[in-house]
Design goal:
The protein contains 8 helices and 8 strands, in the order H-H-H-H-E-E-E-E-H-E-E-H-E-E-H-H. The protein is α+β, with helices and mostly antiparallel strands.
């Protein structure tokens, strides 16, 4: 018995050592995986920031920089996740196959979200607008703040945010008000039929020449737009720098109201004449009824 116990002792010790080695191997794998995850996250963050600085020096648009920086960071996270799982001993090939099948199912379920991603890529590549442009998209007006992976954000003129899905942006007409350096201001005004059109045109051209925001070229002109019920329509068409558009339109409109009054040119407005007739219960005019009462023989 003593000999058997003596011989069994080394076998037990070997099994204990094997268990310890196996346990320490898993601990080692977990430690390596955590190290890879932490270092990988830090590297992904640093690389995305470095890429942003490179794009900034290259003069790329803010929207393009944000999109590529976020995309690079997401790709880095995926690489770190795969590396950490491989360090744990998880078979990444099988896992990628499972993820591919799951991705297909998720893609079918989230086709609208994938459409937004594809539309975001189209907006980045085609670049119908830049950050800071004043645009009108899907009936919404504002200044472009950013284009994300799923959504485009506009800042309204009243300083609130408007968030639009990227797919709606690419399928809707996009009006970019600031894509060109100059814009034409059209100010419509009506003058009376009894007024001198040549004098009205001269006053309008003088107003445009007196405004410092109006450009000399292209040339300002005044056109007759139509004959209304109570006025003749004129339109003053003046060119200004794009940032001056709103103020120039306001100044020209105010000047037209002021200078037309000084020049004796009227700006008519619709009027209606109301005639009131009084009748008795039989429908006869009240004047006829009164005459009949005063002169019975006439009735």
């Amino acid at each position: 018995m003593a000999v058997a116990s003596f011989l069994a002792a080394p076998a037990d010790t070997a099994r204990d050592l094997a268990r310890q080695v196996a346990g320490s191997d898993w601990l080692w794998r977990i430690a390596v995986a955590l190290a890879i995850a932490l270092v990988g996250l830090w590297l992904a963050r640093m690389l995305s920031k470095g890429l942003d600085r490179v794009m900034l020096r290259a003069g790329l648009d803010l929207i393009l920089r944000d999109f590529l920086r976020n995309l690079a960071y997401v790709i880095g996270l995926v690489v770190v996740l795969v590396a950490a799982l491989d360090a744990l001993g998880v078979p990444t090939t099988s896992m990628l196959a499972v993820l591919g099948a799951a991705g297909l199912a998720i893609g079918l379920a989230l086709k609208d979200s994938l459409s937004n991603i594809a539309s975001g890529v189209m907006l980045i590549v085609l670049r119908p607008f830049r950050a800071g442009d004043a645009v009108q998209i899907a009936g919404q007006e504002g200044v472009v703040e950013r284009v994300g992976i799923f959504q485009t954000v506009l800042r309204a003129y009243q300083n609130h945010d408007i968030t639009l899905p990227n797919s709606e942006v690419t399928t809707s007409p996009i009006v970019n008000f600031t894509s060109r350096g100059e814009r034409r201001v059209d100010v419509t005004v009506g003058v009376g039929y009894g007024d001198d059109l040549a004098r009205a045109r001269s006053v309008l051209l003088g107003i445009a020449r007196a405004n410092a925001r109006v450009l000399e070229a292209p040339e300002t002109d005044v056109l007759v737009t139509g004959l209304g019920e109570s006025s003749i329509g004129l339109v003053l068409r003046a060119w200004v720098k794009t940032p001056d558009f709103v103020l120039a339109r306001s100044e020209l409109t105010e000047a037209i109201h002021r200078d037309f009054a000084k020049a004796g040119v009227s700006i008519p407005f619709p009027q209606r004449d109301l005639h009131v007739y009084h009748h008795d219960a039989d429908g006869r005019p009240l004047a006829q009824v009164t005459a009949a009462v005063e002169d019975p023989d006439r009735g």
